[in-house]
What does this fold into?
Amino acid sequence: MSCVSQVRQFEAAAAAAPADADLQVALGVLHNLSRNFDGAEAAFRNALALRPGDYSLWNKLGAQPLPALETFVQTVVSYASLH
It folds into this structure.
């Protein structure tokens, strides 16, 4: 099974269960591995909407490559505002 078909399966599962943060995280990781950084960022943001206090998700979001430097700064500011 190719990575593309796995991503599609996870996208379908995430669409069917939008309140499942773990599916969003897995989808973000798959997008990241396939170098679809915009898709990874979107999935991690969806997961964060469900679990805003999860530091590991903030780390995943902040670890996206440039031009995600802006995303990193937003991540640090957003996480700091929670505490």
